[in-house]
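Sample 3 of the quickstart, ligand adenosine-5'-triphosphate:
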Amino acid sequence: MIEFREVSKVFHTSKQNEVKAVNDVSLSVNEGEIFGVIGLSGAGKSTLLRLVNLLESPTYGEVLVNDKSISTLSPKELRQMRQKIGMIFQNFNLFNSRTVFGNVAYPLKIAKVPKQEIKKRVNELLSFVGLADKADQYPEQLSGGQKQRVGIARALATSPDILICDEATSALDPETTGEILNLLKKVNREFNVTILLITHEMNVIRTICNRVAVMENGEVIEEGSVYDIFTNPQERTTQKFISSVLNDHISSNLFKQLQASKKGRLYRVIFMGDATNQPVLSNIAKDYNVSVNIINGNISELQEALFGNLVVELQGNDNEIDQVVEELQKQVQVKEVTDHAG
Ligand SMILES: Nc1ncnc2c1ncn2[C@@H]1O[C@H](COP(=O)(O)OP(=O)(O)OP(=O)(O)O)[C@@H](O)[C@H]1O
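Result:
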């Protein structure tokens, strides 16, 4: 549905200086999915997003939407394509001088839709986003979450196939973020709208995305299903993002204390799917003279499947610990923790 083929975007900031905001990115977003791009500030996310509706044009490579290279579209085709791509923003970008109704009606007016049809469509959309009673209010009379609902209704007005979300929940508190993410899920499910979002919050990725790409310095450094990335992240940056939501690392103080006590060895154990329902650890430890001390951990839900993430200390003699680890590795992922961030 959206494809980036070896896309780079270079900005010339002065005669000698250039910034490669997007560097040789290849990515495909499939129809019907919710695809998230995560990265720290300056990673290149906004630029990548702006390339999709040609608010920026690529310096190298091409961007395809519905199999068409968008750089080759005529002005008329580009206008038509833009009507099929809705966009929502971190700061909502509403017209303060228009009512809620007027904001949602705006793209339909531009598209010269007849008045009666506009009225019907806007009222449907306001009901869909839960703001039927706010049609005559102005943006300044609304909360942040309500403003974003208006933004979503406006983005959906022209019945887009694709919705692009630029840090859509970054200005909202956690509870309102959850409500807006649920609404986006509903948009995806009920209207079959493909969603491409950028965020710096791993919680947003965990809550609604099917797949994720991690960006750093303009490049995609890791990409995969949200489940695979959470359970087996390869890159340091990805691991840090995941830790930020799982809170699964032991403090450096505790790590030092555990090392100093020399009682045992530390391991991270990752359980997936059915293994979360079974007492794998205690069963195996029972067969050897090894005791298991759980240092921290949790079981969470991801993409409607369960996964557990524990840090345990195995106490016993080295030979027996090795055997326990070997047995465990037949059923779950086990990695020795060698530093506090491990
Ligand atoms: N129009 C521009 N002219 C020059 N440099 C730019 C321009 N737009 C972006 N950049 C630079 O490109 C890099 C990537 O910026 P971009 O805004 O895409 O990152 P981001 O991941 O979206 O960051 P943030 O979350 O802070 O918005 C940065 O170094 C930025 O300064």
